[in-house]
Amino acid sequence: MTDTLIADGDGVYHPALFNDRLLLGMKGTMSEALCRYRHRAYPEVGITRATPPTSRTQRRSS
């Protein structure tokens, strides 16, 4: 990567700078740890099942 910037809600980072790489690495590690914690604490949240939409039709009385 050359002259690439990475931006998120907290700021803009330049991967060529040591401190920015360190901070991005820590953010990634903490994000992964939080994801694993949530999966262990709330296992039903990790699996989402979409229910198919139900359609309602009205019958005309003849």
- Gyration radius from CA atoms, angstroms: 23 Å
Order of helices and strands: EEHH
User: Termini distance?
Assistant: 71 Å
The largest pleated sheet is described as: 2 strands, antiparallel
Tell me the fraction of residues in β-strands, as a range: 5-15%
How many helices? 2
The overall average pLDDT, rounded, is: 79
Runs with pLDDT <50, length 5+? none
**Structural classification:** mainly alpha
- What spatial form do the alpha-carbon principal axes imply? elongated
Q: What is the number of E strands? A: 2
Strand order of the largest sheet: 1-2
Portion in helices: 40-55%
Layout of helices and strands, plus pairs?
Blueprint: E1 6-7, E2 12-13, H1 18-41, H2 43-46
Antiparallel strand pairs: 1-2
Descriptive overview:
With 62 residues, the chain is mainly alpha-helical. 45% of the residues lie in helices and 6% in strands. It contains 2 helices and 2 strands. It has helices at 18-41, 43-46; strands at 6-7, 12-13. A two-stranded antiparallel ribbon has the order 1-2. Strand 1 and strand 2 form a beta hairpin. The chain is elongated. It starts with 5 loop residues before the first strand and ends in a 16-residue tail after the last helix.
Task: Tag the structure with descriptive keywords.
62 residues, mainly alpha, 2 helices
